[in-house]
């Protein structure tokens, strides 16, 4: 689906949703933040139909999950009863499925339908949970998450890195740090850059092992902590991840297809015996690749 037609369809659904709220006597609550929230949720639902990886944005710490939480807090501030919030959620589902049924090219796909239903369930969870707690997300790990991508931040990564180095020293195992630098022409802190970072995070998170630790450690850098893995094996895995990221961005089209990815890495005990040393060596390795010296 083209970007233009997708925006047009989102507008159509949001208008239908707004009309449904007006019929319920809630038109005074349809302010600009509410409209933006509903538009973001519908845009996310459409993206999830076409992109399986986008489901991650509906999980805790995902961008759409957070929007739904903010919407729940806003409804609480407006003193909307929780029963009405539940009715709104049902209306949101009805409007979306009515749109889906009206698409002439629609083909029944059980896996897609199941994925979208999970999106709706997570939207309801985020909204009601935030409504009850007055917080967009509630999790003890929230201060250790990157607010844009939902992956871990530098503080958590460095703490885990030190722990893994000590564990590797104790049990005579290897551990590797891999850095990915995302090189783009997008303006810093723009919505285009944010979507780029979320897209990269989706691919890295989906294709990393459960034991790996993924974090965003700088404006355009991601780090993956790979326990019990030698540098040679980590390099092979990192090259595969890079190809998967570039393929995904290529499918997004436009300027996303022109993004570059550089890799830097360092391993214990080969490059150092402290977490900070390994991270610095991985960073210097990244710089050498960017300068063509790798």
Short description:
The protein has 294 residues and is of the alpha+beta class.
Feature tags:
single chain; 294 residues; alpha+beta; Globin-like; Alpha-Beta Plaits; 2 domains; 4-stranded antiparallel sheet; 9 helices; 59% helix
How many beta-strand segments?
4
What number of domains?
Answer: 2
User: How big a fraction of the residues is strand?
Assistant: 5-15%
Largest sheet: number of strands, sense, barrel closure: 4 strands, antiparallel
**H/E series, N to C?**
HHHHHHEHEEHEH
Helix and strand arrangement:
Layout: H1 3-23, H2 32-50, H3 63-77, H4 82-102, H5 110-133, H6 154-171, E1 175-183, H7 191-207, E2 213-218, E3 221-227, H8 231-252, E4 260-268, H9 275-290
Antiparallel strand pairs: 1-3, 1-4, 2-3
Helix pairs in contact: 1-2, 1-4, 2-3, 2-5, 3-5, 4-5, 7-8
Q: Can you tell me about this structure?
A:
With 294 residues, this protein is α+β, with helices and mostly antiparallel strands. The chain has a four-stranded antiparallel beta sheet with strand order 2-3-1-4, with helices on both faces. The relative contact order is 0.10. The mean pLDDT is 90. The longest helix has 24 residues, at 110-133. Helix 2 runs antiparallel to helix 3 (63-77), helix 2 runs antiparallel to helix 5 (110-133) and helix 4 runs antiparallel to helix 5. It has two domains: 3-133, Orthogonal Bundle (Globin-like), CATH 1.10.490; 144-290, Alpha-Beta Plaits (2-Layer Sandwich), CATH 3.30.70. The chain has helices at residues 3-23, 32-50, 63-77, 82-102, 110-133, 154-171, 191-207, 231-252, 275-290, and strands at residues 175-183, 213-218, 221-227, 260-268. The protein is built from nine helices and four strands.
């Amino acid at each position: 689906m083209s970007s233009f037609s997708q925006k047009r369809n989102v507008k159509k659904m949001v208008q239908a949703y707004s009309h449904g709220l007006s019929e319920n006597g809630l038109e005074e609550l349809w302010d600009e933040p509410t409209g933006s929230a509903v538009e973001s949720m519908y845009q996310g639902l459409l993206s999830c139909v076409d992109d399986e990886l986008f489901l991650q944005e509906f999980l805790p710490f995902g961008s759409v999950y957070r929007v739904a939480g903010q919407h729940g807090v806003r409804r609480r501030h407006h003193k909307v009863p929780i029963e009405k919030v539940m009715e709104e959620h049902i209306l949101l589902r009805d409007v979306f499925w009515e749109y889906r049924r009206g698409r002439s090219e629609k083909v029944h796909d059980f896996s897609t339908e199941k994925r979208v239903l999970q999106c709706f369930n997570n939207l309801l969870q985020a909204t009601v949970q935030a409504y009850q707690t007055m917080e967009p997300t509630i999790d003890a790990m929230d201060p250790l998450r990157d607010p844009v991508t939902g992956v871990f931040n530098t503080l958590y990564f460095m703490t885990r890195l030190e722990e893994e180095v000590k564990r590797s020293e104790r049990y005579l195992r290897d551990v590797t740090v891999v850095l990915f630098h995302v090189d783009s022409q997008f303006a810093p802190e723009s919505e285009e850059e944010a979507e780029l970072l979320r897209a990269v995070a989706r691919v890295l998170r989906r294709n990393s092992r459960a034991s790996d630790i993924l974090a965003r450690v700088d404006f355009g850098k991601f780090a993956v902590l790979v326990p019990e893995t030698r540098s040679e094996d980590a390099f092979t895995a990192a090259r595969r991840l890079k190809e998967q990221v570039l393929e995904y961005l290529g499918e997004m089209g436009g300027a996303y297809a022109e993004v570059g990815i550089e890799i830097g890495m360092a391993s214990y005990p080969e490059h150092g015996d402290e977490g900070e040393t390994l991270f610095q060596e991985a960073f210097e390795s990244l710089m050498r690749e960017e300068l063509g010296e790798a």
